[in-house]
């Protein structure tokens, strides 16, 4: 049965525990997209399932790959109530009724697994030497498994154990592949529009100054195509194209390539490739922020505004030097700092889209 272009399997309601139920669903590939030939894309792997859960729009925190790997391993570990919700979304193929049915089935299977584990501990005389640390079916078994692996983890706050390490590569990739393909282009357009409205508020949207040779020159912010046409038209179109290409590659292109090469090795997983390039992301980010942002702003705007009167090119950023009645120096410094900060972030995203996410 197919639903929303994905393989849908109804809840069996056969009394299986969590491990038995998940093993069958993962092998069948329940919730995976259907290929062009009408057949399922294949079984789930830990990497593919972690990526699918992390791509759910409302799941901002994502899921750790180690947690998903525990689900595939032969152990008595269960699943947390929070991850039951996301896994039900995957198995329910984003259908509200099917998701609700799977959430009930997964919760019941988790409770049955807990009951089996408690019964096994009661019958094993060796467990009398150590207390049962979890008898509540709602306890997060994934977190408890990680705690047992590290004896000193009990001394750490629970929030610290759940907190994931910040990854610039993953966060940057999520800007292109997370949610709607129009999110990033709309954000860039909104930022440029906000700068345009702000320039109107401070009075530099359209300004004319008279040069020494009695030639009037327009230096308003809205008259600078590199700050209006570029950020309001060209970059949003570019980001829309890149997000579409990236979405196709991560969701369909890689699957087709794997099927053609007859391989599903985890080394080819997109998430691992992104994480492996973390140093490159940081290098591009620092170059854009420091050179395209901070250093350029200091040389082009800050120093001329602070010194004043020198032979500097007049633009909307240094208009306060020749026309202080239009805009003051402090306001000009604040506005140019905001504009250059926005510009360096856009340059960072542009370089990522140009060199990292396009063929």
Automatic annotation (TrEMBL):
TM spans (from-to): 186-209, 229-249, 281-306, 326-351
Biased amino acid composition, Polar residues: 135-147
UniProt entry tagged with the keyword Thylakoid: no
Name the record gives this protein: Putative transmembrane protein
Region of interest (Disordered), residue spans: 115-164
InterPro entries membership: RcgA-like
Composition skew (Basic and acidic residues), residue ranges: 121-133
Annotated keywords: Membrane, Plasmid, Transmembrane, Transmembrane helix
